[in-house]
Amino acid sequence: xxxxxxxxxxxxxxxxxxxxxxxxxxxxxxxxxxxxxxxxxxxxxxxxxxxxxxxxxxxxxxxxxxxxxxxxxxxxxxxxxxxxxxxxxxxxxxxxxxxxxxxxxxxxxxxxxxxxxxxxxxxxxxxxxxxxxxxxxxxxxxxxxxxxxxxxxxxxxxxxxxxxxxxxxxxxxxxxxxxxxxxxxxxxxxxxxxxxxxxxxxxxxxxxxxxxxxxxxxxxxxxxxxxxxxxxxxxxxxxxxxxxxxxxxxxxxxxxxxxxxxxxxxxxxxxxxxxxxxxxxxxxxxxxxxxxxxxxxxxxxxxxxxxxxxxxxxxxxxxxxxxxxxxxxxxxxxxxxxxxxxxxxxxxxxxxxxxxxxxxxxxxxxxxxxxxxxxxxxxxxxxxxxxxxxxxxxxxxxxxxxxxxxxxxxxxxxxxxxxxxxxxxxxxxxxxxxxxxxxxxxxxxxxxxxxxxxxxxxxxxxxxxxxxxxxxxxxxxxxxxxxxxxxxxxxxxxxxxxxxxxxxxxxxxxxxxxxxxxxxxxxxxxxxxxxxxxxxxxxxxxxxxxxxxxxxxxxxxxxxxxxxxxxxxxxxxxxxxxxxxxxxxxxxxxxxxxxxxxxxxxxxxxxxxxxxxxxxxxxxxxxxxxxxxxxxxxxxxxxxxxxxxxxxxxxxxxxxxxxxxxxxxxxxx
Amino acid sequence: xxxxxxxxxxxxxxxxxxxxxxxxxxxxxxxxxxxxxxxxxxxxxxxxxxxxxxxxxxxxxxxxxxxxxxx
Lengths: 669, 71
What we know:
The complex is a heterodimer of chains A (669) and B (71). By secondary structure, chain A is mainly alpha-helical.
């Protein structure tokens, strides 16, 4: 049996889906979190029907009308896949709007069960809904639910009603709104929809008693006036973000990471002891330095990433995201984006893939594509290890480098937005901003913990598969030369890896890190950004990157810097290069899906590469000039490459749009 | 008729017309319950945006959209 979950955006569909299936899909307190349908089997404890029931969570929709272009995933699924039952999740604090969709669902002939969700919020506001009366008016079962609660939430009753209807083959009768004939054209649909709203208003007045009218000012509105205040909005946003990153990267995260690294070291020692001296040296080196060392260097940063995801989940859960969108709208309009663009960017600080997918709530195509292109510039969780590594090894003061990278990301996004606005000849006058403001609520520690753990699980799986394999391959490639002989101790440059990566290293020379090890790391970084640190660990045979203090005890952090053989300025340039080049392949795939245009995709990737290269070039050459008084290596070659890239961008910015050219031509004729 | 952008806080207005060429936006506002004959209340004016109450929900709209809603 198949049950479709439908309802308005932010009515709690995914929360309900997670509770009834036990899955951990991404939830957040703003409209439009779910962009793709998700399937899951309903838990046995809730489903007493004996038959397997598959629940399908659909993106939110306000209407099923064929003339509203958006929200097509929902109507397409309902109309083509014929679910046995529809569970319509209705935000019980907003019957007046939610039931519009309900009336449309009731006309499809598929049995409908209404879940009056968020009913705890109604209790708080002392709004009463006569459930029996509503059920009678709509001619379908109505169940009060609180999907955020784990028990006493009405979900068992909801599932049993759904199962009953699903097996009865009962044909749903809708309320008589449309009359005898179905509407044929847009005017008739509009007239029918007006009648629909009249019906909804009538039902609402009969079943709902509100103690507090919704037009009254509430405490929530008072909070909005502070949080989204013209002057306070930005400082509050900066403070919130600063807090999130300080906790994850300067306070709690590193503290946990230090403890965690001890465990990895102990494990390394344990395996080393077990292998003893008798094991094949190639295999033991592959296992210790290639696999445990490489993967360990990456996994060591897991606590930082977990704390970051925990904080982001709290932020997404409380309702603040929609307010940030409102605060940022006036600034983002100036760079050709929408206020909503800030949400993908904040999510991208965790991972760019869900971040890019979140751009789907932006209606304007140009704004959506530009946001998908610029969001990966926010340093994601997988790039955290790179930042933490270089900040720790070369700059001692972690806080300063980390913070400046986020700041630089924002500057890069603003600058890029302006360039793209100019290239696409956008006048930005035709797009409106509208966003529902969900009610604030206390973020759930439990949900944040679940989100963090699911993230950690995904990270560990990735470390145990892709990253492990990459590190093993890198280790093998650098151990052997083309004759498949093990390379000599002092001839690492003759390895297969060195000869493959060296041509790439030539291109990177003007950026200050023209060593094959760095080139190999940048390339494996496209598979997964965690690989950058892993590959560096393997190629330089350094196993513990995090415990810089430990290094200080052993031989000073300088020792690692010496091992790397580059200056601090070049290290900063390498950091900048890795942060601002195109994201990993998976994120590029997400860009492809959201942009729906090869021209935008390739243009975007080229732009990202150009941005990373140019920034790294500037950082290295200017930095070297300032610190040593002379230019860095490969200045002329780099300057030529950068000049070509900049000229292309400038040409595109000032090129006349083709229509204008055509017009001018025709006038000339 | 005047545009909603000139409206006062805490006053409930009845929508007269939606003045825009953007048919998609007009339809979208309709599905939210913002169409001629329905009411809209301005809750706050924040920065360059307006917080309005339509049906029983709060929305943030920009000044441009507030100008398009005639009351």
